[in-house]
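Summary for the lay section of the report: proteins are chains of building blocks that fold into shapes. Here we show the chain for Phosphopantetheinyl transferase and then a coded description of the shape we predicted for it.
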Amino acid sequence: MNTKWIGKADISDGCNTYTEWFSVKFAQREYKVCLNFLKIIDFDQMTSVRQFLHEEENRYFETLQYKLRIKSFLLGRYSAKKAVSALTGQTNFKKIQIKNGVFNQPLVVCETGGNTQVSLSHCEDSAVAAAFHEMLILGVDIEKISRNTFSGVEAELTQHEKELADSVNCSYESFLLMIWTIKESLSKVLRTGLTIPLSILEIKNIEVHNGYFVSDFTNFFQYYSITFMAGEYIYSMTYPKKAEINLDMNRLKSGLYKMF
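The coded shape description reads as follows.
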């Protein structure tokens, strides 16, 4: 991998952030993807992030009344802009607009990155975003390991997925959230969100690799998903099965632990 793509961590605007670059080969072409990870360390300071909002984003922001919605909006937008900026070189965040499509999927409007798309996810005080060329398809998701979500996830498992639990070397609680993030990331690739029965997104296999997991699907055999854990969080990224990903997982996880 090109050494100029080595991950970068920084502290700014009340947040710890980490950006990782990696390459994806597909159909004899190579594309760069930028992953941004963000964690709030000072919410009051982070509200200054609104100075980086596009004018249309700022108009929407001014209608928000509740702290949780304000936090999630700023988390998602800031992480997405960090990723898009790293990919396109556009350093003026006001010139990067993240709009919502008809299914609330994020869409990028950026003069210097007209072919750029983004996938984003946030959970409590953390977020992740992936920026990539529109020739690719990627979906990301993040969840915090919390007992409050276990029962709801377990109720949605198919019988086949329940049987997979014995083959995965992690706690049952982590397995449940792994299943959830994998399905969430696939739903973002499909641009349906969780508006379809989760059984349609059934996971067929989960293979254990060195520090991460690779999954495929019963009904969507054209995709793979990578899942890894860092700190209190589980991350999943779904991508085309025929794509070759050059991602240094050890370096990525090391950068995330420093961020936490």
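Put simply, here is one thing we learned. The chain has two domains: 1-136, 137-242.
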